[in-house]
Write a structure and sequence with these properties.
The chain is mostly beta strands. It has one helix and ten strands, in the order H-E-E-E-E-E-E-E-E-E-E. The longest helix is centred in the N-terminal third of the chain and has 23 residues, at 4-26. 16% of the residues are buried.
């Protein structure tokens, strides 16, 4: 496009923008009209939100802060449940022996006993039989000179006698405080040696006396003893009264 025609086209192109600018300054169309400008269109809709960006890298730790003040102590909590019993621990070493204790006071043992035998033949009736052969009389509660046992410890006693009978009948009685308690009678058989015995439990008070005696008159004093035959009398304390000091 050379020649006059090209020149004319170039002139139009140079003049057109200028005229357009002048016309735009003179006429201001309403922007709300559908065609506010010969090149304008309807307003567009807002776009969608974009995707979140990636997390940034962790920052460096800051300097350690100062220690805060101690808070107020809270209320005591409820007691917890009892736990399961644990395993038994290892056995410990034996401890050192303790110091020797002081000697205690021993319990007092009350003793009263005697055992005696006859040395005389045919004792006299109605008097205590004097058993002068002493087998045991450690506490000296039996008096050989009188034939009587004297109670020094109140309590329960056991008495017994075993007599040889020879030449005549025997009737004896065990006395307590001038009163016959038990009787024993044996009828002698000629050309023979018999035995008579008896036993009894008695409660005695301090000062009570007990002895054995031929009972009644006549030929009832056949109590006998020699080097091969004995007639014995014995007694001992079973247990004292509880109020004995």
């Amino acid at each position: 496009m050379r020649g006059p025609a090209g020149f004319f086209l170039c002139s139009l192109l140079l003049v057109a923008p200028h005229c357009t600018e002048v016309a735009a300054q003179d006429i201001q169309p309403d922007p709300k009209t559908p065609c506010a400008n010969w090149m304008g269109g309807a307003p567009g809709y807002p776009g969608h939100n974009g995707l979140p960006g990636r997390d940034g890298k962790d920052g460096k730790d800051g300097q350690k802060g100062e220690k805060g003040e101690e808070g107020v102590q809270g209320p005591k909590g409820d007691q917890g449940e009892i736990g399961v019993l644990g395993r038994e621990g290892p056995r410990g070493f034996p401890g050192y022996p303790g110091q020797k204790g002081e000697k205690g006071e021993g319990a007092f043992v009350y003793r009263s006993a005697f055992s005696v035998g006859l040395t005389e033949r045919a004792p006299h009736p109605n008097v205590p039989i004097r058993f002068s052969k002493i087998f045991y009389n450690e506490q000296s509660h039996y008096d050989a000179s009188t034939g009587k046992f004297l109670c020094s410890i109140p309590g329960m006693y056991y008495f017994a006698y075993h007599l040889t009978v020879y030449l005549t009948d025997v009737k004896v009685s065990l006395y307590k405080k001038d009163k016959a308690v038990i009787f024993t009678y044996d009828q002698f058989q000629k050309n023979n040696v018999d035995q008579a015995s008896g036993s009894v439990l008695l409660h005695l008070s301090t000062g009570d006396e007990v002895w054995l005696q031929v009972y009644g008159e006549g030929d009832n004093n056949g109590v006998y003893a020699d080097n091969i035959n004995d007639s014995t009398f014995m007694g001992f304390l079973l247990y004292p009264d509880l109020d004995v000091n």
